[in-house]
Amino acid sequence: MTRSHAETFDKPVWIVTGCSTGFGHSTAKYLLQHGYRVVVTARNPDDVQDLAQMGNAFVQRLDVTDRAQAESAVREAEHHFGCIDVLMNNAGVGYFGAIEESEEQQIRQMFDINFFGLCRMTHLTLPRMRKRRSGTIVNVSSIGGLRSFPSVGYYNATKFAVEGFSEALWQEVEPLGIKVMLVEPSGFRTDWAGRSANETQNKIDDYEATVRKTQQQIRDSSGHQPGDPDLAAEAIVKAVESAHPPHRLLLGNAAYDGAVSKLDELRAEFQQWESISRSVDAPQEISSD
């Protein structure tokens, strides 16, 4: 499809990674139900056949850790729809384990998906957005990208990395007309804790009261979290299309309360140690002029 043909549509083109379940599936479904053109991606396209039958869906096989597949998905999307207006980096996995227990191979695999896969998709879509001086990049983070919890320290690390990456990115590309938004949810019924999160095989008894307790609480809540991914999808789209999209979109009461609490904790500790913090700069020389 040529760009001139694409411009006859009112709705922008979205490409959403990780559409098999969770936020990816719910967002793609919401967009398709409301007339958007959507590049629906999944490692196994058979997992998104329900979406493939809806509206202007264009299904692409995509493992974000596979550069060839990522390049093909972006190239085919731009050829099919003429452009990509919104990239939603949603693909991600979890991993349970104390820092000391965690296995390097599992950690690296999670970083490849949660962080480097997101970076790859951003790199591939930015050139055309920059040329057009328009576009939006939505990076799905977590309340765990703002504050950490026992048992998911390395998962938190992937999301902290996404936060730092995104904050630098919006300072670089917003002057060029491109928006960047972080989505920071708390607990949602996305099966993240039940299906998408592996756990360490190296169990150390000393972490039973912290790591294992938190892990069990998260596992037990799977499917019963307060967050509704369908409502989250609607909120994400509304935020993207608002006149002034936020840099950070907290989703869920626990996310909002947890973020505000973290701000209060940081402020209190910073102020307590302010005199020491300010004492280490070299004295300024007084000019003789």
From TrEMBL:
Keywords per UniProt: Oxidoreductase
Entry EC number(s): 1.-.-.-
InterPro entries: NAD(P)-bd_dom_sf (IPR036291), SDR_fam (IPR002347), SDR_oxidoreductase (IPR051911)
Coiled coil stretches, renumbered: none
A molecular function GO annotation: oxidoreductase activity
One Pfam family in the UniProt entry: adh_short
Family, per entry: Belongs to the short-chain dehydrogenases/reductases (SDR) family.
Protein name, entry field: Oxidoreductase SadH
Phylogenetic lineage: Bacteria, Pseudomonadati, Planctomycetota, Planctomycetia, Pirellulales
Gene: sadH
